[in-house]
Every structure is written in C-alpha cells, then in structure tokens.
Design goal:
- With about 325 residues, the protein is of the alpha/beta class.
- It contains eleven helices and 13 strands.
- Helix 1 (about 10-25) crosses helix 8 (about 235-250), helix 5 (about 95-115) runs parallel beside helix 6 (about 150-165) and helix 9 (about 270-285) crosses helix 11.
- The longest helix has 21 residues, at about 95-115.
- The protein is globular, with a radius of gyration of 19 Å.
- About 50% of the residues are buried.
- The mean pLDDT is about 95.
- Bound molecules: uridine-5'-diphosphate-4-deoxy-4-fluoro-alpha-D-galactose.
C-alpha cells in the first residue's frame, strides 16, 4: 500500500482528494495546521471512507517540524495543497503569503530530497495565465505578470519546483486548477468559507440560504455574450480525481519529463449569469442579485483547453455545472 502525504488535507480540495485516495487504496497521512479548516473534517472523511487517515497538526513554516515528520514517516509521494489562497488578503499581507506559501514548499522539497521521496504533486492555478490572449487556454499560453502576491506564489512555486526537479530525483506535476466548486455527494465535506465568501459559489449558496441578503454580480459590461465574466467551473470531485491519475503517472514512471503541468478544468466557460440561471434551475430557489461595478483585478474570461490532460492523463471532468451547483447547495443546507 503506497503511503501518500497530503498537506492541507483537511481543506476544500485536500479533503476531497483524501477521500478519493483512500477509495483507491492509498494509505493517507494528512498534515494540516487548521488555519483554514476544522478538525471535524477528519471525522467526516472517516465516515465517508470508513478509514481514519493519520493526522498531524504541523505548521509547514516550521522547518524542524517538517524535518521531524519526514524522519518519522516514510512516504511514497506528496500532494501539496497547504497554502493561503485569498487573492484580496494576499494584497494586504504579502509577507505572510510569501512566507506561508513559499517557505513551506521549500522545506517540503528539501526534506523530500533528504529522505529520497521523489513524487510530488503541486496545487497550481489558472491565475498564472492572467487574462490569456487566446481562449481556451493551453498549457503553452504565456505566464503573465501576477496580479496579486497569491498569484505570484503559484508562479514562483512552479519555478522552484522546476528548478529543483532539474538537479534532483524529484518528479513533479503542477496541476493548474480553474474554478473548483461543489461538494462530495455525501454532503459531509465541502467548501467552508470563513467570514464573508469572496468566491462566487459560496456567495450564491449563502444568499439562497438567507445568510446573505443579496449577491452582487461584479460587472455586466465585459466583452462576453451576456456582459458578465466567464470562468471554467470544475466539480471538486473531478478535480480530486485528477490528482490520483497524476500521482499514478509519477508512481508508475509514466511522466515524460521531470516537471509537467496540466490544466485541470472542464473546458467549458460559463458566465456569472449562467451560473445563477443554472443554480435557480436545479434548486428551484430564486436568487436575489443585483449587478454592480466590476471587481478590481478580475479578468474577462478564462477556460481551459484540457486536451493535454485528457490525452496524457486519461482524465476528463465528468460533472456538469448543474450537478456541481446542486452538490454545493446540498452541502450548504447541511451548514444551517
Ligand atoms: N463574482 C461575482 N460576485 C461575487 C463573487 C464573484 O460576481 O460575489 C464573479 C467574479 O467577478 C468572477 C466570477 O464570479 O467573474 C468568479 O469569481 P470567484 O471569486 O469565484 O473566482 P475567481 O475566478 O475570481 O478566482 C479563482 C480562485 C482564485 C484564483 C483565480 C484565478 O478563487 O484562487 O480563480 O483566476 F486565483
């Protein structure tokens, strides 16, 4: 049984990936410092899979704690989710973001080298493309200057991993996620935004649940068919499964170079108004919303060309926007 370390394994994408790993027979160890998650997620994972993953409350910014973990635990691979991810907050707290997202990555890679752990999956983001010149976005699209310290940590993170893979035995895959949404079908795990949600779907579900009065649609004057911005919304379970196939690719030595990147999205773009329509249709709930000004830093449109992920990983997103939104709503209802 292969042992896999999942950092940030109690977070939104991490927890769904832990479930898929356990379902596929991997032995999972979780590191999470609970900075943006809660410990009860561990029990929820256990109740879904009937296996309790080993859990370590370790802050990856502590080099000695990371050293200690690797000395005590032999693992076959690492999937690294643990990171701060709020774009706006990163502008306010750049040093915290660089410290948290970059130091932890460096310490992990150093200890992987020391302990001869060679398989590494990294959570990257379509944010590295900024507003791409061509749609859909391929992996070869140029990397644009980052709009935020958060985005920069993903770009720098990829560079650090690429440089490390050149001089070590580490094989790495960076998955560039588009917009992950939805929740596990059991409605036991999902996205837990702390405070006022910054992302569209949690704001939509909280508005429908009566927690928020009104959804603000940021801008209707974009150069898109209905004037609202377009994104590629991918069901988090599909996204979680992409990690399993990427991990197997490394474990089975099927990677074509020591550092590979894949877009992980559905390949389909939907506007904010389409999301609202889809949500209203599948839930039968009317959403209270109004159009307001654009949000600073937002791009017009981003959706993935997933040809390389489809062909190389043999992976394809299965869930529709309707299904993903319904799962997000089922999850929201459990939170009331
Ligand atoms: N939106 C609204 N109202 C809201 C929230 C969002 O209209 O209350 C709109 C945004 O303007 C955007 C779309 O809904 O057009 C999606 O917004 P999200 O905040 O959900 O997602 P983003 O595409 O802005 O951000 C996501 C990730 C980031 C990542 C970024 C990369 O959340 O971590 O993609 O492009 F950096």
């Amino acid at each position: 049984m292969k042992k896999i370390l999942v950092t940030g394994g109690l977070g939104f994408i991490g927890s769904h990936t832990v479930v898929e790993l356990q379902n596929e027979g991997f032995d999972v160890l979780i590191i999470d410092n609970l900075s943006n998650s809660t410990i009860d997620v561990l029990d929820k994972i256990t109740s879904i899979t009937t296996q309790k993953p080993k859990y370590f409350n370790i802050d990856l910014k502590s080099k000695s704690a990371v050293q200690h973990f690797f000395k005590e635990n032999k693992v076959d691979g690492v999937i690294h989710f643990a990171a701060s991810k709020a774009v706006g907050e990163s502008v306010e707290k750049p040093l915290e973001y660089y410290e948290n997202n970059i130091c932890s990555l460096i310490y992990l890679l150093q200890e992987m080298r020391t302990n001869k752990v060679v398989n590494f999956i990294f959570s990257s983001s379509c944010t590295v493309y900024g507003q791409a010149d061509e749609l859909p976005i391929t992996e070869n699209a140029p990397i644009k200057p980052a709009e935020s310290p958060y985005g920069n940590t993903k770009q720098i993170g990829e560079e650090i991993i690429k440089d490390t893979s050149k001089i070590s035995d580490i094989k790495a895959i960076a998955l560039r996620y588009f917009n992950p949404i939805g929740a596990h079908e059991s409605a036991k795990i999902g996205e837990l935004p702390i405070g006022v949600p910054q992302n569209l779907i949690p704001f939509v579900t909280q508005t429908a649940a009566g927690i928020r009065k009104e959804l603000a649609v940021f801008g209707s004057d974009y150069n898109t068919p209905d004037g609202t911005a377009i994104r590629d919304y991918i069901h988090v379970v599909d996204l979680a499964k992409a990690h399993i196939v990427a991990l197997r690719r490394l474990l089975e030595n099927n990677n074509k170079s020591f550092f590979e990147v894949f877009n992980i999205g559905t390949g389909k773009g939907n506007s904010v108004l389409e999301v609202i329509q889809s949500f209203e249709k599948v839930t039968g709930k009317k959403l209270n919303y109004k159009i307001v000004n654009r949000r600073e830093g937002d791009i017009t449109a981003a959706y993935a060309d997933t040809t390389i992920a489809n062909n190389e990983l043999g992976w394809k997103a299965k869930s529709t926007l309707d299904e993903a939104l319904l799962s997000a709503w089922k999850w929201q209802k459990t939170l009331k």
